[in-house]
Amino acid sequence: MELLARAQQLQAEGCDVIHMEVGEPDFPTPEPVVEAAQAFIKTGRVHYTPALGMPELREAISAFYAEHLDAKVSADRIVVTAGASGALLLAVAALTDPGNEWLLSDPGYPCNRQFVQAFGGRVKSLPVKAQAAYQPDLSQVEDAWSADTKAVLIASPSNPTGTLIDDERLDGLVAITRQRRACLVVDEIYQGLVYGRPAKSVLARHDEVLVVNSFSKYFGMTGWRLGWLVVPTMLTRHIEKLAQHLYIAPSTPAQHAALAAFSSDNLAILEQRRQLFGLRRDKLLAGLQGLGFRIDSKPEGAFYIYANSEHCASDSTELSRRLLEHSHVATTPGRDFGEYLAQQHLRLAYTMSEARIEEALDRIRLAL
Ligand SMILES: Cc1ncc(COP(=O)(O)O)c(C=O)c1O
Predict the structure, then answer these.
(1) DSSP string covering 63-102, please?
(2) Distance 297 CA to ligand 1 centre (A)
(3) Whose CA is nearest to atom 16 of ligand 1?
(4) Nearest to 73 by CA among 211, 271, 260
(5) pLDDT in tens, 93-137
(6) What is the domain extent for residue 296?
(7) Which residue among 242, 263, 284 closes a domain?
(8) Cβ-proximal residues to 44 (8 Å cutoff; 6+ apart), any chain
(9) For a substitution probing ligand 1, which of 92, 156, 211, 216 has the most ligand atoms within 8 Å of its CB?
(10) Do the bridges between strand 149-155 and strand 18-19 make them parallel or antiparallel, or are there none, so unpaired?
């Protein structure tokens, strides 16, 4: 956030800053979604919806799982939320009693530890290794387990690494958490943004997990603040009460807009964008490797590359600062995502055109 503020300051002073620190698609909201929102708002009938979300949107999400991800998820297990953030918050609120422990990947999405601590929980970090695709190993989870462990949270594809967990390990995590009467939460916010392999959901093979998703990334709707949480049926009522008290209901215009997100026209636009992201990933990956950065585990999803910067800096926070000040390329230092090998890594987002990526690579080359 400090870097972002500095980047914006430089921009206000007239510098041409390349924003590789931002975690949101550069594309505008697709036209079918904008049109649906406009048509709805014109009616003026913008009232509260049920706390769990509009029934027709929950049905549409359920149909999306069935048609595109081969997963049977009944609408009564789907909770519409204010982004994946709202879904994570509800999941943590529902599962955490003071003193409970959550196992979280390091590096990982930085807000998760704050959510857990806000509800009196404790975080135990799992330092995830590049050789394990930056996803927790089963032995690591077993070794970290304590009498207070309540839940394991992973993200696949992951932020900041763009790496995916394989089915075998996922099955192992489901088995471990089930045996120990704990919960597995899988953040699938980048689920549609996968390159060179089909998009999947853990819900195609397991029902007893909690799954977070969002309209922010694949659907290109960050600012609409809409996402969802899939829960085992026995948790729905509990989650409904939390949602009612915490925020009454998710945004009504955003829910009406999101109904158009699953139309075939819209999905065709999203597929084109996904392909562009794949090309950008290839360009940035090859370019960074050409500049001596090591990418220790190939990113297969999301829109980030987690690059090892040891060849040119002993502290990636300082490197990030210098790249911003001297080259006007904004990146995110590893320190934002945890502590494990953080100073050796930078996260770079490819949420920009290939031409802009080339420009960024040229500037980094000069800086090095
Ligand atoms: C892994 C992960 N989870 C959750 C979120 C929250 O996203 P939103 O609330 O916009 O859906 C993000 C945002 O960058 C993320 O990277």
Answers:
(1) HHHHHHH-----GGGEEEESHHHHHHHHHHHHH--TT-EE
(2) 21
(3) 159
(4) 211
(5) 999 999 999 999 999 999 999 999 999 999 999 999 999 999 999
(6) 2-29+266-367
(7) 263
(8) none
(9) 216
(10) unpaired
Amino acid at 320: S
Q: Could you give the maximum distance between any two Cα atoms of the chain, in Å?
A: 59
Tell me how many domains the chain contains. 2
Q: Whose CA is nearest to atom 4 of ligand 1?
A: 84
On whether residue 318 sits in a domain, the answer given is yes
User: Which of 24, 89, 214 for mutating ligand 1's site (highest number of atoms within 8 Å of CB)?
Assistant: 214
Pocket test for ligand 1, best of 22, 29, 80, 85 (most atoms within 8 A of CB): 85
CATH code for position 192: 3.40.640.10
pLDDT band at 4; cut points 50, 70, 90 = confident
Residues contacting ligand 1 via CB (< 6 Å): 23, 83-85, 109, 155, 159, 187, 189, 214, 216, 222, 227
What CATH number should be reported for the domain holding residue 279?
3.90.1150.10
Residue 34 lies in a domain: no
Q: pTM for the complete prediction?
A: 0.97
Cα 181 to averaged position of ligand 1 atoms, centre (Å): 27
Helices (H) and strands (E) in the chain, counts: 12, 12
